[in-house]
Specification:
two-stranded antiparallel ribbon, 488 residues, alpha/beta, Rossmann fold, 8-stranded mixed beta sheet
């Protein structure tokens, strides 16, 4: 089974990812009907999570049995190879002469016997066992990242992840291990933001109904999380209106806060007309990765290539960052981990536009679904570098007018409000169509996503919550807010 992350569905290997999903389930898990699952969700979310876990466990057992069957069949097959011929005995030595040997002849005979004995011993010495290759740290990480997500214990992380999926209307038979694994990663990745924000939020709310003073404290919390002035003002204005209409207890206040945060994040997504950014099959898709130095553009490109391949799409990478030392080699390493070809020009001071030119030709000849273009990092204040970015975009538009082009800005979440300034500047020069927010796991400023959505008006398309190759996934506002306020 291939899980198409761009369409959030499971697809059998070899089938088009756009076809309707046909999940395979075990007999034990099939006993839980959709009606029973729906009733369990309404009455007992924990029971619903148990059913989802049992279903995934049955799928795992079925997949393991399917893998073991060919091995057992091969082991049971009789060995049809002919028996080896018995070794031919060496000819017996000629009979010893009856006449007595001289001292020299006796010495020669003894040497011959010792020589034959040494040769006999040498033929019995076994071949030395081959020395296994030493696994470097990079090799170990690659192997670990390439493993499929594993079904862990039925713990708090699983139950929370299952409840998030159930709240979005999923049935038990629609729960995927890929999604469970990612939600756990997202929850862990937002731990630093959550620790500072949620802990203070709980202390502020207390157990009594909300008051104007509590709302003022909540405003300060959002600003400290780098949610931005505009986003904070919108949320606080809506909350104050609600307070004027009725008494709001802490639980209702949390639910209302989640609704407001989701609404802010969804506004630019709805305005774009594209709910979930995905390559369009039967058409060349070109995604340009832009941003300042050090935000993780090349790493993000490598993770997107892996995501595309895991989702059943063909991909090609254009190494158009010809300025930074070893940038081409870094792209090649990431692409190799996903078995994605790279178009590059190793010569010094190569023209990035020329690399893009060659990559578009290669993408057409290979018929790939997605061409990912890595660009050099540049500060938004350097007008000459921004003009170079515009030149690359003109090359793309001229050579591939039929292509669907996306210009994605990669932002480091730890930069906070400075990242918002970058988004505003790049939006004018690079015709941005979306944002990728990285390094959410290393900062307490995860609220910058709200500032980017509300003030820059740019839809967030992907988020990264870790350093692993599977720690980047399409953005979902509901899951992001639930992970941000997990436990409330």
């Amino acid at each position: 089974m291939v899980y198409d992350w761009f369409n959030r569905s499971s697809v059998p290997n070899g089938e088009d990812a756009t076809s309707p999903p046909t999940p395979e389930v075990g007999e034990a898990a099939a006993e839980a009907t959709d009606q029973t699952a729906s009733e369990a969700t309404e009455e007992d979310p924990l029971e619903w999570a148990r059913q989802a876990y049992a279903r995934l466990k049955a799928q795992k057992a079925q997949a393991q049995a399917a893998q073991d069957t060919p091995k057992q069949e091969r082991a049971a097959e009789p060995d049809s190879s002919p028996d080896p011929d018995p070794p031919v005995a060496p000819p017996s030595p000629p009979p010893a002469p009856s006449a007595p040997l001289s001292l020299l002849e006796q010495a020669a005979a003894q040497r011959q016997e010792r020589l034959q004995d040494l040769e006999s011993r040498a033929s019995r010495v076994e071949e030395p066992a081959p020395v296994p290759p030493v696994r470097t740290a990079q090799t170990s990480e690659t192997v670990q990242d390439s493993q499929e997500p594993q079904l862990g214990d039925f713990d708090d992380t699983f139950t929370w992840s299952a409840e998030v999926l159930a709240a979005q209307g999923r049935q038990v038979d629609q729960v995927s291990l890929e999604e469970i694994d990612w939600l756990g990663r997202l929850r862990r990745g937002l731990e630093k933001t959550r620790q500072g924000f949620v802990t203070s939020l709980l202390e502020t709310l207390g157990d009594d109904p909300l008051t104007p003073e509590v709302v003022d404290d909540l405003e300060a919390l959002l600003l400290r999380a780098d949610a931005g002035v505009q986003a904070t003002d919108q949320v606080m204005e809506a909350l104050r209106r609600r307070l004027n209409e009725e008494v709001v207890d802490p639980g209702e206040g949390i639910r209302f806060l989640k609704e407001q945060l989701r609404g802010l994040l969804e506004q630019p997504i709805q305005a774009s007309g594209v709910e979930l950014l995905a390559p369009e099959r039967g058409r060349l898709n070109i995604w340009l990765m832009v941003g300042v130095n050090g935000v993780g553009k090349t790493t993000t490109l490598g993770k997107l290539a892996n995501l595309a391949v895991r989702s059943g799409y063909s991909a090609l990478v254009a190494a158009a960052d010809t300025f930074r030392a070893a940038a081409v080699q870094q792209v090649a390493v990431w692409a190799e981990r996903s078995d994605v070809p790279v178009i590059s020009n190793p010569s010094a001071n190569a023209d990035p536009a020329a690399v893009v030119f060659d990559a578009i030709g290669a993408a057409r000849s290979k018929g790939v679904d997605l061409l990912l273009v890595d660009t050099a990092g540049r500060l938004q204040t350097k007008h000459n570098l921004m003009e170079e970015l515009q030149k690359i975009r003109r090359i793309v538009d001229r050579l591939a007018p039929e292509a669907r082009v996306e210009s994605l800005l990669v932002l480091d979440a730890s930069q906070g409000q400075n990242g918002l300034k970058q988004a505003m500047a790049f939006a004018k020069a690079a015709d941005l169509t979306g944002v990728v927010i990285t390094k959410l796991d290393g900062t307490a400023r995860g609220g910058v996503a709200l500032a980017v959505a509300s003030e820059a008006g740019l839809p967030i398309r992907f988020i990264g919550a870790g350093e692993g190759i599977r720690d980047l996934r399409p953005f979902n506002s509901f899951e992001f807010v639930e992970a941000l306020l997990a436990g409330r």
